[in-house]
Hints:
- The chain folds into three domains: 2-141, Ubiquitin Conjugating Enzyme, CATH 3.10.110; 147-324, no CATH class; 338-594, 3-Layer(aba) Sandwich (Rossmann fold), CATH 3.40.50.
- Helices cover 30% and strands 21% of the residues.
- The chain is globular.
- By secondary structure, the chain is α/β, with parallel strands linked by helices.
- α1 packs across α2, α1 runs parallel beside α3 (108-126) and α10 (353-365) crosses α16 (525-543).
- Strands 13-12-11-10-8-9-7-14 form an eight-stranded mixed beta sheet, covered by helices on one side. An eight-stranded mixed beta sheet has the order 17-16-15-18-19-20-24-26, with helices on both faces.
Amino acid sequence: MNALVESTLSSSVERGIAALHAFIGQEAAASLLRPASRKQGEAASFWLPLPPDYTGVERRLRIAFPDQFPITSLQIHVEPSPWLKWPHSMKSGLCLHGFREKPITGTPETVVHDSLLRLGAIIDFVRVDSDPILRDAEFRKEFTSYWSMQLDSSPQDILLLERPKTASELFATSDPRPARRSRTAWLAPSVSSLRTYFRRIVGRNAKIQSPVVAGFYVKLLTYPDVQFPAPEHLLDWLTPHLSENDCKKFLSWFSGKGSLANRLVVLELPGSERAPMYCLDVRSYSKQPDHGRWYGFRSARRWSGKNQPSHSPVLVRGAILNILDRNDILSRDLSGTAANLEKTRVVMVGAGSLGSTVALQLARSGVGEIVLIDPDILESANLGRHVLGVDDLARPKANALAERLTQDLPTVKTFPYMDFVESLLLKKQAIFQSADLVIVTTADWSSEVALWFNKAKGAQWGLLQAWSEPHSFVGHGLLAPRGAFDGRYLFDDTGNFRLKHTEWPDGGGVVPLPACGQTFIPGGISGMANVASMVTQVALRFLTGDINNQVWTTTIYRPQDVANHEGRYFGPALADGAQHTVLEREWPTVEDGDR
């Protein structure tokens, strides 16, 4: 068996070598291709000379076939190394595959052909007659990656609380949470931003009076050399690529902050207002330990005399930079939905298992303001399908969820109310008058009736009532657009939907609790996720103007399993092979609702 495997591998390598000759051309291969001494793990290797590149250097390729070829891909190296001279050249060799691309698999011929085609694309950028504009553009696609490969990593990561609009000093404080005290520094162009974020994270105000100005933001007009300079030449490398005014501001700050052991320079690459950004941690000589700086709420006293460090950098490192900017946070949604949601306001009536999930999804979709209304507190029985966790037990759901949303997504404004919606409709009508959409997920008929009563009188906010049938195989949403609409005719006097799709024994599947009038609708998190996703999609389509009429949506998941829970399904049949479907229809007629 081993002999057979060895024979098969040898045959694969032979086929690969033949494919290499065919790709180069038989005559060229015979005159140019030369055997190279094999390294460990290689079955065969060759040298192939290259013509001089745009730098005037003659280089040669080393092409190696691994023992496990073609399972292990062809190995291609260039000598002398073209690191920082050729696009896609790393210190360890050529990068033939882009982000998350995997080497091709298949026959030896396919592997050789694909690898050499990718190699050829790189060589096209560096030929003597190649276009320097195209070569530079290829470098710029991964500009900050090349910097990171040359620089060591700073022990401190940076959280920029907003994108500055012009060259500016950046105030710094440290994250007050114990696990991040010396690891994460907050930077902002204004002290008010630091105060706001502190209140958001900690839940109380802080007396941030005169924090240290540890950073500076500047926009690059042109690209510096991709090769990073020695620390003492940093300013000469950087300043020619700044505007005259920005350069003066930057140099004034840089020289004036020489007493700081670490200065943080945030660079935005040329191009659009949302171009990539990179942070440099510039360290001068200091006796301070170098394991991340603690920034307090006011500037420390300057050291004097001989203890003051030199202004000249002795070390430059790359710092991980995260930006709390709405466009950055939502940049991976290319649908354009988020841009239309920044000024929208949604009122969530109910912050339970369904409402909390919908609220979180709406916040992550870009909704600007979310009002949370729920009088209940979080209990241990809620944890199995709620977005909140054990640290929030015994807290009001609305308050805890509001904190969770604003901590996770500082771009959303939240307003919690631990009250009944019936009371707020009377006492604080402005909450609803300024809303674009009200979503009720309480499965509490008195709350739903109060909202439909106001809606029937012509309320200009949209209303989306959503709920799950027992065990979450089926979920529904009724959307009423702006204006006068009343969906109460679709329910009986106790709030049961007249067009339900399942039937359940023992109280209709609703489980009573040992409290006056308290019940819950059974269902796991997976089924509830289907319902929440449906509700979120309907809400987003309404908020972006895609839906302007009455809509009844239903999610149905594996109705054949209803019988396993002692229920009966009599809703629409799913198509052959379908496990899950979402139906969208106009509201049923009055006659349908009365049946």
